[in-house]
Every structure is written in structure tokens, then in C-alpha cells.
Specification:
By secondary structure, the chain is α+β, with helices and mostly antiparallel strands. The protein contains five helices and ten strands. It has two domains: 80 residues, 434 Repressor (Amino-terminal Domain) (Orthogonal Bundle), CATH 1.10.260; 103 residues, Sandwich (Jelly Rolls). A hairpin with a 2-residue loop joins strand 6 and strand 7. The relative contact order is 0.12.
Length: 205
């Protein structure tokens, strides 16, 4: 096994350990929510009290059959058992290499996809950058969609259906993007902006 294989194995082991810890916390939380002791949960599930204790302390990796028995005893689905507490802190990090990057046809505009994959059907957001004379032409999104372009550096122009408007650093342009639209950097300096696309905005008649 090469270095890459070893690293992958370590990552899988770390992931399994994290999942096991999440499972243990969820079992303990659900058991206490039902005001059940370890002995009572053992009696209801048929899982040994010592095994349940080890699961809650993240000292063992239970089988799917064991998880199913505990879920039945706690009157919840397996998905619910595997879920972490809604009260737990949530922090998710994407590194630069993990962030997808789109490039315009002229190669001068870049869109780093910084939005959350779970909202992509209705909300998308990007970090937009454009070199001087860069042009990003986009096809229409679904009806009622609105885009918000907040300029961080430089100056950008947006054109929608023949109407043009510019924005400098600190300014924001909001426009219908359910028709062809173009973003241009007409200045001699690089420009950066955040772009938020609301795909299910209120329909504008």
C-alpha cells in the first residue's frame, strides 16, 4: 500500500470514528429523552447493557442490526439515530482545492462556487473575479430568478435585456437573471464581487 493508500485508510478510519461518536451521542440523547435507563433500553432492544454503554462512550462500532434494534426500542428511524443533535455546533470547511471554480469563455472571469450544495436548487452564491476586459455571459435561469452582485474591488457593469448599470466597490446590483445577462469588467483593473443567485425569488411580472 502506497502513501496515498495509507492516507486514505487513515481518513476512512477517522471518518468511522467520528460517525461512531455521533451515534453514541445520539443514542444517549434519545435514551434520556425517553427517560430510559441503560437497563430499560437493554430490556426493550435486546442489546446487552454493556454494549449500549460502550456505544454511548464511543468504545465500539455497532452492527447495523444493533442500530436497528436500538432504533426500534427508541421508536425512531435509523436515520434519526444517526443524526447528530440539532443543538450541536455546526461548522463545515471547504479548502481552496475543494472549492469548484468556473471559467468564462474568454478565460478572464472566474466563479468560485462557495454556496452550500444543499441549497443549490433555490440559492447559489459565488466569489466572482474578473481581469480587465473580462466578460461573463450567462443564459437565462428559471423564471423569477434574481441575482445580487456586490462589488468588493474595482468596477463592474451588468447588462440585462439591453439595460446597463455599473457598480463600484461597496455597491450592489440586483437584477433579473431569468433572461440573458452579461457582467463586464470595463476598467483597467481587476475586479472582485460576491454573487448570490436566488432561483426561487418572488416572480416579478
Amino acid at each position: 500500500m502506497g502513501v496515498e493508500g495509507k492516507d486514505k485508510a487513515k481518513a476512512l478510519e477517522a471518518g468511522a470514528f467520528a460517525l461512531s461518536g455521533q451515534l453514541g451521542r445520539a443514542v444517549m440523547r434519545l435514551r434520556k429523552a425517553h427517560s430510559m435507563s441503560l437497563s430499560e433500553l437493554s430490556d426493550h432492544s435486546g442489546v446487552a447493557k454493556s454494549i449500549i454503554s460502550q456505544i454511548e462512550r464511543n468504545e465500539t462500532n455497532p452492527t447495523l442490526a444493533t442500530i436497528w434494534r436500538l432504533a426500534q426500542a427508541l421508536d425512531v428511524s435509523i436515520d434519526r439515530v444517526l443524526q447528530g443533535s440539532e443543538d450541536e455546533p455546526f461548522i463545515e470547511k471547504s479548502t481552496r482545492n475543494e472549492t469548484p471554480n468556473l471559467v468564462s469563455e474568454d478565460g478572464k472571469c472566474h466563479l468560485a462556487i462557495i454556496g452550500w450544495i444543499k441549497t443549490v436548487e433555490w440559492l447559489q452564491w459565488y466569489m466572482f473575479s474578473a481581469e480587465p476586459d473580462g466578460v461573463l455571459a450567462s443564459e437565462p435561469h428559471q423564471h423569477g430568478s434574481v441575482e445580487c452582485l456586490s462589488v468588493l474591488e474595482g468596477e463592474l457593469e451588468v447588462e440585462v435585456a439591453g439595460v446597463r448599470e455599473t457598480a463600484k466597490a461597496g455597491e450592489t446590483l440586483r437584477y433579473r437573471c431569468d433572461r440573458p445577462h452579461v457582467i463586464r469588467n470595463l476598467s483597467g483593473e481587476p475586479a472582485r464581487a460576491t454573487m448570490v443567485c436566488i432561483l426561487r425569488a418572488a416572480v416579478m411580472e
